[in-house]
Design a protein that fits this description.
Blueprint: E1 11-14, H1 31-40, E2 45-49, H2 50-53, H3 57-66, E3 70-75, H4 88-105, E4 109-112, H5 125-144, E5 148-151, H6 168-178, E6 183-188, H7 189-192, H8 198-205, E7 210-215, H9 239-248, E8 255-257, H10 270-284
Parallel strand pairs: 1-2, 1-8, 2-3, 3-4, 4-5, 5-6, 6-7, 7-8
Bound molecules: zinc ion.
């Protein structure tokens, strides 16, 4: 396992940790200011959200690289299934636009949050089948633009309306079904910490399918499953064990801090939040 105690260049900021994924939240820093604050603290890379980028993908990507940061990723595609994804053509067109944005940014990975149970169906099996069909349509487009697509299974609490994909197992199943080298998965502590089969499923995924590792913590007494994520060390996830599994499967990429925290971390000064991340990453992750 990598030793981060003296070198945190693997640390990446997901800008959602500063509230930047939701209008009106967080300190509202411009991308340039976030880039400079991360570079000054030795972060190795950064992950943006589409709403921050607008038409400035190339400019912001170049700006990050000039500051010494890699653009590790972009969040995210629109939901591909579920109540907001009834029109297949419209959804795939928007997803392709998000692939174009990732390519412009020079982002290595575009995250797919898949959407909930598809209208007219129950359970997750049929929704996952529709999902696999739509993902298969996107993969060649992303391949041409050198963007990797990462399916992100979400915690089962979101299965109804945000992600019918809830386990690494189901994500690997879809990867195997579609079977293209630029389709893989992202592993997020918040979504997988409870899974006693995680190590075995990550081994099954292997190093060629794991495209991202997201850090935060699960607060034992969480107040809001969407917007009350914990800082690493404040919750009950076994962070070292999860990273051991991820790296044991062959992953050696960025570790991306992604904390949605409306009533705690988003209310603090972003510079202080970044300082805490560095300290926790070096000592607890
Ligand atoms: Zn994530």
């Amino acid at each position: 396992m990598r030793d981060f105690s003296r070198d945190h260049s693997a640390l990446a900021l997901n800008t959602a940790s500063l509230g930047h994924n939701i209008e009106g939240r967080g300190a509202g820093w411009e991308p340039e200011r976030v880039i400079d604050a991360c570079a000054a603290r030795g972060f190795g890379s950064i992950v943006f959200w589409r709403r921050e980028i607008g038409l400035r993908a190339v400019e912001i990507g170049d700006r990050a690289r000039a500051a010494g940061l890699a653009a590790a990723g972009l969040c995210r595609t629109p939901f591909l299934v579920g109540a907001d994804a009834l029109d297949r053509t419209a959804v795939l067109d928007e997803a392709k636009a998000s692939i174009d944005m990732a390519a412009g940014l020079g982002a290595a990975v575009l995250t797919i949050v898949v959407g909930g149970v598809h209208p007219g169906t129950r359970g997750t099996v049929e929704s996952l089948r529709i999902l696999a069909d739509r993902v298969a349509d996107l993969v060649p487009y992303a391949t041409e633009r050198r963007v990797k697509l990462a399916l992100e299974p979400l915690n089962p609490v979101y299965a109804g309306n945000r992600s019918c994909l809830t386990t690494v197992r189901d994500a690997v199943d879809i990867c195997e079904m579609v079977d293209m080298p630029n389709l893989g998965l992202a592993v997020d502590v918040y979504h997988v910490w409870w899974d006693s089969d995680l190590d075995a499923q990550l081994q099954r995924a292997g190093k060629n399918r794991i495209f991202g590792y997201h850090l935060c913590d699960w607060l034992a007494d969480t107040q809001d499953v969407l917007l009350d994520r914990g800082m690493m060390g404040d919750g009950v996830a076994d962070l070292k064990a999860i990273r051991a599994s991820v790296e044991g499967a062959g992953y050696a990429g960025p570790c991306e801090v992604e904390i949605f925290s409306a009533n705690n971390w988003w209310k603090r000064d972003p510079g202080d939040v970044l300082d805490v991340m560095v300290e926790r990453f070096r000592t607890l992750c």
